[in-house]
Known about the structure:
Helix content: 25-40%
Low-confidence stretches: 567-579
Bound molecules: ligand MGD, iron/sulfur cluster, molybdenum atom
Radius of gyration: 25 Å
Largest sheet: 7 strands, mixed
CATH architecture of the largest domain: 3-Layer(aba) Sandwich
Number of domains: 4
Amino acid sequence: MTESDIVSFCRICNAMCGIVATVDDGQVVRIRGDESHPLSRGYTCPKGRALGVMHHHPLRLNHPQAASRVDQKSGMRLMAPISWDESLDDIAEFVQSVIGESGPDGIGMYLASGSAFDTNGRRAAERFLTQAGSIQKYTATTIDTPCKPLVAELVGGWSGLTPIWDHEHSKLLILVGSNPVVSHGHSNAIPDPVRRLRDFQNGGGRIVVIDPRRTETAALADVHLAVQPGSDATLLGFVVRALLNDVQIEEVRARADGIDELVSAVDRFTLSFAADHTGLSESQLSELLNDVRSAGRVSVLSGTGSSMNAAANVTEWLIWALHIVTDSYDKPGGMWFNPGYLMQLDSRDWQPSDGVAERGPVSRPELPRRFGEYPCSGLVSEIESGNIRVLFVVGGNPVTALPDRERTEAALLTLDALVVLDVVETETTRLATHVLPVAGQLERGDLTWLLDSYQLAVAAQYTPAVVDPVADRRTVWKVFAELGERLALGVLPRGFTSENATDELLFGPILAKSRSDVATVMSASSAVVESGAVYGWVTERVLPDGKWRVAPSDLLAQCDQLLADSPIPPGSDRSAELKFDRLLLLPQRRMRTMNSQLRDVAAPGGRTETPAIVMSPHDAQERGIANGDHAKVESDFGITTGRVAVDANMHSGSIGMPHGWSTPDVSRLTSADSGIDPLTGMVLQSGLRVSVERADD
Length: 697
Ligand SMILES: Nc1nc2c(c(=O)[nH]1)N[C@H]1C(S)=C(S)[C@@H](COP(=O)(O)OP(=O)(O)OC[C@H]3O[C@@H](n4cnc5c(=O)[nH]c(N)nc54)[C@H](O)[C@@H]3O)O[C@H]1N2
Ligand SMILES: Nc1nc2c(c(=O)[nH]1)N[C@H]1C(S)=C(S)[C@@H](COP(=O)(O)OP(=O)(O)OC[C@H]3O[C@@H](n4cnc5c(=O)[nH]c(N)nc54)[C@H](O)[C@@H]3O)O[C@H]1N2
Ligand code: SF4
Ligand SMILES: [Mo]
């Protein structure tokens, strides 16, 4: 057979880069960037280029497996192959009996990164849970970014509002705790990041990176502000305060309610207060303010550096306030809201939310339920207390992603059934009672559906399956459809069954509601772009009475509380750090892995990632630690060890650690009980105090 090229898109991260897969007799021989893709323009990163290797990798799951017994020595389940029919019969039986005994909320589901790009699978999984009558839904949102939907809901009336960088018209891009050169964006999909940021600068745009570490993105920015971790709210408060003095308040009042409360909330953030708390000089702060003033409108993108610490909500709120005061939302040159090509959010009828949270799960009623899900910080206690007895894990690795690994592992082993739908063996599949080998991204058709409104343009793409599923691998939608058929739950849209549906037929109802007909997207040779930035629909259709609620009382109160507790450490003064002799633990991403994914898989000619405890030369030296040494990291909740990488770019007083690894394992340092954000249930994953010492190899 001869080689053929199939145009597709990568579904590892939000960037969804266009790819061309070369296939020869069922073998994926090469993955390269799709030059004709309007957004990624031929770019791929090492993860995308590893997709072919991944498809054929020995770690891939090929056959369903089941286990009942836990091996006392290894603490893992003993697995044996089982047929699909037997497996699904068995799972259906568990579901039925648990619903009979405990009610539908005995069934839980954790949906995470690996399901975000599986259009049909994600929809079927969620529908299975709702049709079963369970509200026990958990997603990675609540261990990642809940400050974003929270602030969107409180300020804008809808949690899904996602501001997007107006890269074609903006003059000033400020990145707060985000490193898109490695991550390709947090809630903005930024494929081809280096070229895109350079193009922006060449067009007259200025880039300011606010990050304690001199990151890969900071290295190409016009200005890098190495802020004291956790002090972003103070920095932003200072800018907002100064701008409120510049503007005509009546003008701002016309687009926002709560201006007077905002004015008094930010009043404390004077220049000297900000300099004291951020560790930046007064002239650095004044220059930032000048940059904002001369740009007029601004584009601020935040990431995990600000979304995972104790000040997350207040920081995100002040970012929104900055945009609103400078009239940067929903207008050219600031941030726009992508209504989505497929979702067409601008054609819906909106009822602004009052932002009041519902009660948490039974074992943790104090946790807030928002966005139709419970926070992940309540998942393990729900299992421990016997409320969840069957857990489905769809595209997630909770053992490494959730806090307090030992507790998570112990709880998962007590479930009646832990059903894991994954593409490879993981720390979570090893604890499962049922491991279901599902079709990987090259083995199924897809649409750019769930992350439609995260894109830099109103755009959509369809991909067919690049290759047929190998061995016994099955699509996630088919698994849930078949389970649904066994339990009399309608999982697929009306008229479809597990037998008569196909990937493409299931796209019909989605495309029928999109901006064009089915053929336009499905027959296009790459992504279809409807337009660049569009403006006005959020102000007209979504905002409560057409105005932003710029000073929600919950956020005002949290701002007061934060300052009273003073978790924002004084930066210019190292006394706090010396007093604790402890460092701040900060998150970071790695180029060749996506969370715990691709740790063992490299692109052809490439290499795999080596995780490390990243320390500044100063902090390492103080502890007698050299590059490559082993070190022990201890928090109030646990201990982990790993290799140290001394990095002159690291802010002294803090260490960086990627998550998703076993050595070092940052999830041993975090807690599901302590430091939980009261408004979102978010686990504190950034800014924890840890001590570090040299350890023997
Ligand atoms: N290559 C790769 N890409 C990924 C992922 C991956 O694992 N690998 N994961 C994906 C996922 S799930 C997500 S959520 C996104 C995340 O996307 P980003 O948020 O862009 O990713 P990070 O690289 O974690 O960037 C966080 C930055 O915040 C900085 N930081 C830490 N503390 C503070 C602070 O207090 N203030 C400020 N201002 N900065 C701080 C860190 O030094 C770091 O550079 O990336 C996605 N893309
Ligand atoms: N301490 C600490 N904890 C963190 C973070 C941190 O920075 N620090 N980051 C947090 C963040 S931002 C996130 S998003 C979470 C990540 O949490 P998770 O999303 O739970 O973690 P991943 O390791 O990405 O797990 C994704 C799983 O999906 C599987 N998968 C890949 N492709 C497919 C597919 O096509 N179908 C299916 N069904 N499965 C597939 C992968 O093999 C993998 O096992 O972790 C969070 N936890
Ligand atoms: S940046 Fe890399 S992982 Fe993300 S979509 Fe593009 S190729 Fe895939
Ligand atoms: Mo994430």
